[in-house]
Amino acid sequence: MRKRLNYETSTEFETDNQILTVQLRDVAANSDPTRLAQSLAFTQDLSDFLNTDHLPDKQRTVFALRYLEGMSYEGIAEATGSPIGSVKGWLNRATVTARVYLEERGWSECHGQE
In angstroms, what CA-CA distances link 47 with 11, 74, 84, 85, 102? Predict the structure, then answer.
């Protein structure tokens, strides 16, 4: 039986006066040095994005809960005590901001960092 190697890293950011730690895992990174370097660079860029004031707190919170924790819109609305329409609006604005930020740093949706 072959053991699958993986690369795991964590990043921390503060939102709503809480520090959240997110672990990111790339199951193919250890077998490919280029992919490992890309994973490290992406993790750093994502951490930088979440640890700066690019997003208001509500947008940062819903972005993290949706994309890093995998919560549903309903779960986020319940966790934040906010209407689901507000959650969707904040998430949309946060996603657009994240996309622009990451694209400015060379990340594309299909190709990783160029």
Answer: 6, 26, 26, 27, 11
Q: Looking at the chain, list the stretches that DSSP marks H as alpha helix, in order from N- to C-terminal side.
A: 33-50, 57-63, 73-80, 84-104
pTM attached to this predicted model: 0.70
Which of 42, 37, 39, 15 has its CA nearest to residue 26? Answer: 39
Q: What is the CB-side half-sphere exposure of residue 53 using CA atoms within 13 A? A: 0
Per-residue pLDDT 10s for the chain (114 aa) are 333 344 455 666 665 566 666 565 655 555 677 877 787 788 888 888 888 888 998 999 999 899 888 899 999 999 999 999 999 999 999 999 999 999 999 988 654 444
Please state, as a whole number, how many other Cβ atoms lie within 10 Å of the Cβ of residue 5.
10
By the 8 A CB rule, do 94 and 55 touch?
Answer: yes
Q: What is the CA radius of gyration of the chain?
A: 15
Provide the sign of the torsion angle of the four alpha carbons 108, 33, 43, 73, taken in this order: positive
